[in-house]
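[Protein data]
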Amino acid sequence: MGFLDAYEKLLEFHRSRRRGPALNRLLPDLGPGERSFLKAVWWPLFRNFEGLHPEYEVHDPGYGTRFIDFAYIRPGFRLAVEIDGATTHWREITQEQFSDHCRRQNTLVISGWTVLRFSYLDVVQRPLDCQRSIRQLLQQFGPIPQLPLSPCERELVRFASRSATPVRPAAAAMHLHVSTKHARKLLHSLVAQEWLEPAGGQVRVTAYRLHPSKAAFRI
């Protein structure tokens, strides 16, 4: 199942179980920041939306109903993910709005939520950094299931493990007989899954090598 099909099923599932304001938050769609987060960060990392609740409703004593951009709920663990900056201009909010923002986050923490915040800029321009933060956090609460690799991903891992030098996107594309754009997408996915790691480039990654934690793997 691809991202678009999984995304539609996610919304249909939660729409069918909600009423009133909680339902309205999902109509007609999620906001640009939330959609970008799912497509660029969450989906490449997990390839599913199990346990993920968009626009999750919580009760804030004294302030009524609040909504979390995304709640990820596992036994004994609740993660609130907030995407900031897609439509809100922080320089334009009032002092009272900023105070309310702080109260809201404090209430979540006191209520047992772990909170991660990502700027819209990071979601769009630095999704791998966002993925890394989520992975590092979740690893504290138990192992994250390893995603099954596609045939092309498996071959890239083999290629990187046998290469004497870091693998560049152009070389990966030539090895797989695919476009450089598609090869770069596969390389990014393998970095997110910690099969590969960046090995060259300052502003933009230009080469990749096998992740040290996978040195003993044979695939």
Observations:
- The chain has nine helices and six strands.
- The CA atoms of residues 92 and 106 lie 22 Å apart.
